[in-house]
């Protein structure tokens, strides 16, 4: 191996400057990196150097590598938030075991069990939006997605317990802003005060509520909810997950699944309301389906609208791993310890694959030329592909269909710019709308 191949690809040098640029303008800063450095570049970050790829062949190489090649990137930063047992932070055999235990409730065929709860939550929260007043629609979608998680994942549907869970989760997430997520120096309790101390207090409260729910389950008679299925799940040796592990996996699902789905829905509304003809076509296609969740989920145009939303507005611009062994990519031998990222944002905006890539055109998903998993990866890929992908897509479809068929909204602002949340990016201002019907 010569010296040239051992060198990391070119890229900016200051992690602090790059972090601030990202916090100020996440999409602009990544597009700029792609323009300046091409398909493979090094990106200094506060968690270490990341080598970032956006060409399909390189993304295929990352996602199809032997899973033991990688550990999670910057796992230490997220461990105090999610817990060491979280599936997001595991690797190797422990990660495979956790995925195996957690996968069955998220299988596509199980979505039928969740559709009605998704539609009912959407109806209740959309009907509560006041008419003729400016409201950020993302806040409403956040309430819906939290409600859906509490009903379908925690299996809680009675008023008082639902309210306590919703309050606990909302307060915990609110206390975990982008600054605390980005700067580990802020992850300290300053004599019981400050954002981290507040976050830890709320987190303990949510863990206690989840423990009460776990204790109330009978593994011999599991309910339909995901918590019950996790309590009843057994690994190959016949062992169940212990209480702490279930609590950590449930909280991981809240963090991974709450804001993501709500943000994706907000982008879909922002785009759809700017194209009245497309909205009318969607309404026509959905009307004969009577709001039946199973039939709605099969609508080709609705599917294309959701796919195009996640292409143009990926919520996690970059998925990353840490190399446990040397790895060859694009003529570079990357040493163990280096971070390796697949850049969803740059992959989704490649003109040669997506002509007029910055335009919202769901039709591109209806012309029969489906992109490969290395050209279109809103849920990441390989052994770490999003566990909740089918769940999230199902929820997006049911909530959007309910909105399009039963309500009428008008946009109350120019197209949204993208800002940084804790672990995701989304529309600044949460897409203000006015409800007319
Ligand atoms: C539109 C909504 C969502 C999007 C765009 C999204 C996207 C992603 C992405 C990009 C990853 C990283 C994949 C990788 O590293 O290759 C991920 C991981 C994950 N997601 Fe999602 N997600 C969404 C909703 C959900 C929901 C609803 C849940 C659960 C209820 C969920 C649970 C998870 C979990 C547990 C992981 C970690 C998987 C692992 O490390 O093995 N996500 N998601």
Automatic annotation (TrEMBL):
PROSITE patterns in the record: CYTOCHROME_P450
Domain of life: Bacteria
Keywords associated with the record: Heme, Iron, Metal-binding, Monooxygenase, Oxidoreductase
Cofactor(s) this protein cannot do without: heme
PANTHER family per record: CYTOCHROME P450, CYTOCHROME P450 12A4, MITOCHONDRIAL-RELATED
Family: Belongs to the cytochrome P450 family.
Protein name listed in UniProt: Cytochrome P450
Taxonomic source organism: Nannocystis punicea
Taxonomic lineage from the root: Bacteria, Pseudomonadati, Myxococcota, Polyangia, Nannocystales
């Amino acid at each position: 191996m010569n010296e040239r191949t051992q060198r990391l690809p070119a890229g900016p040098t200051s992690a602090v400057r790059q972090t601030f640029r990202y916090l100020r303008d996440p999409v602009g800063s990544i597009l700029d990196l792609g323009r300046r450095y091409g398909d493979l570049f090094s990106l200094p970050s506060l968690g270490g150097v990341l080598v970032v790829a956006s060409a399909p062949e390189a993304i295929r190489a990352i996602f199809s590598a032997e899973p033991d090649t990688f550990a999670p990137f910057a796992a230490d930063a997220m461990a105090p938030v999610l817990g060491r047992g979280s599936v997001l932070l595991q690797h190797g055999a422990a990660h495979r075991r956790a995925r195996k235990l957690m996968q069955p409730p998220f299988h596509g065929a199980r979505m039928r069990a969740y559709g009605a709860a998704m539609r009912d939550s959407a109806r209740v929260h959309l009907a509560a939006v006041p008419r003729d007043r400016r409201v950020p629609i993302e806040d409403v979608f956040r309430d819906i997605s939290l409600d859906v998680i509490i009903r379908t994942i925690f299996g809680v549907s009675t008023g008082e317990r639902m309210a306590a869970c919703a309050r606990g989760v909302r307060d915990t997430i609110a206390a975990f802003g982008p600054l605390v997520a980005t700067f580990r120096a802020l992850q300290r309790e300053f004599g019981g005060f400050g954002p981290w101390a507040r976050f830890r207090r709320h987190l303990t409260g949510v863990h206690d509520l989840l423990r009460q729910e776990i204790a109330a389950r009978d593994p011999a008679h599991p309910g339909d909810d995901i918590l019950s299925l996790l309590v009843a799940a057994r690994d190959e040796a016949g062992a169940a997950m212990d209480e702490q592990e279930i609590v950590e996996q449930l909280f991981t699902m809240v963090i991974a699944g709450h804001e993501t789905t709500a943000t994706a829905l907000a982008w879909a509304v922002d785009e759809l309301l700017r194209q009245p003809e497309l909205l009318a076509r969607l309404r026509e296609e959905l009307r004969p389906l009577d709001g039946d969740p199973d039939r709605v989920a099969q609508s080709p145009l609705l599917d294309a609208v959701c796919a195009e939303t996640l292409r143009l507005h990926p919520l996690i611009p970059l998925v990353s791993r840490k190399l446990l062994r040397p790895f060859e990519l694009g003529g570079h031998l990357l040493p163990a310890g280096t971070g390796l990222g697949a850049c969803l944002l740059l992959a989704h905006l490649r003109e040669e694959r997506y002509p007029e890539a910055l335009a919202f055109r769901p039709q591109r998903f209806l012309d029969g030329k489906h992109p490969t998993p290395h050209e279109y990866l809103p849920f990441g890929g390989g052994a770490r592909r999003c566990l909740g992908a089918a769940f999230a897509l199902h929820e997006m479809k049911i909530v959007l269909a309910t909105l399009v068929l039963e309500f009428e909204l008008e946009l109350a602002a120019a197209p949204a710019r993208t800002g940084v949340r804790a672990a995701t990016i989304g529309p600044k201002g949460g897409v203000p709308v006015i409800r007319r019907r």
